[in-house]
Amino acid sequence: MAKIRDFPFKIPPSYPTHDHKPQRRFSRHYYLTFKDSGIQLRGKTCAVVIILDAAPYASTFTFVRWRICNPMTQRAIDGQFIYFVTTITADRVWLFETPEIAHRLYKDIHEACRTCGFTLFAFCIMPDHAHLLVRKDGTITLSVLMKTIKGRFSFSMRRGQLWQPRSNFRIIDQENYFWNVISYIKYNFQKHALHERFSRYPYVYLSGHAINNLTAY
User: Fold this and answer.
1) Residue 179 to residues 36, 168, 204: CA-CA distances in angstroms?
2) In this structure, what is the dihedral angle of CA atoms 145, 104, 169, 147, given to the nearest 10 degrees?
3) Which residues partner with 86 through β-bridges?
4) 20 to 30 A from 22, CA-CA: which of 75, 153, 155, 170?
5) Residue range 73-119, pLDDT digits in tens
6) Could you tell me where the DSSP H helices lie in the chain?
7) CA 172, CA 194: separation in Å to the nearest integer?
8) Which pLDDT does position 160 carry in this prediction?
9) What is the crossing angle of helices 99-116 and 142-157, to 10°?
């Protein structure tokens, strides 16, 4: 496998950068995923995510960094990792605007993490989505955890399809990334220009005990 910095990340001058359709994009950073990386983790092939920077209308990319990630879903990875998870309501309906409804999800997240064997570091509940920061400590997968949370909440609401079928997640692989996610969760209400009440219970939870006991970093 060639060195990441040696990869010829170039696009034709007639194909402007701002029209490029990478798998993910944040600000000026492009996230390109190579599923067939040849890298094995616990006997399973993982993807390599190349993070690049490009100025508007530039014809070349500048290497920023790279990290190992799972190809499509967490089924490809089996280990005690820390996950940053995002789950969204169906059709982005504002389901958690009232504290009473948010409190139901608040309890369901705590109960599901306890029964599924996950350490819960933090989460925030916004009107149409939720972010969780958890660590897998047992044998139950992240997919089962999210299905448990969604199932509990849907049952308590006595309603059908309330969630989008898939949840997005990223593996926390660096210490600064961990603390950035903590800050992102704490102040997520500001990103969406929401009232300050979305920065308090039951919309935001930070476990000081779990965070302080974290020894991985």
Assistant:
1) 30, 19, 16
2) 30
3) 131, 168
4) 75
5) 433 334 567 899 999 999 999 999 999 999 999 999 999 999 999 99
6) 99-116, 142-157, 175-186, 188-191, 208-212
7) 27
8) 77
9) 140
> Please, which residues have CB within 8 angstroms of residue 20's CB and are 6 or more apart in sequence?
11, 30, 54
Q: Can you tell me whether residue 155 is helix, strand or coil? A: helix
Structure tokens at 132: 């969780």
Closest CA to 159 of 93, 87, 85, 205: 93
The C-alpha atoms of residue 203 and residue 84 are separated, in whole angstroms, by 17
Strand partners, 48: 34, 68
Contact 87, 96 (CB under 8 A): no
Distance CA 11, CA 204 (A): 42
State pLDDT tens for residues 39-83: 655 555 666 666 666 665 555 666 666 665 554 343 333 456 789
At 29, phi and psi to the nearest 5? -90, 135
- pLDDT tens, residue by residue, 152-193: 999 999 887 899 999 999 988 788 889 999 999 999 999 999
Report CA-CA distances (Å) from 190 to 102, 124, 194, 198.
18, 12, 6, 9
CA distances from 6 to 44, 62, 86 (A): 25, 11, 33
Give residue limits of the domains in the chain. 4-72, 82-212
What is the CATH number assigned to the segment(s) 82-212? Answer: 3.30.70.1290
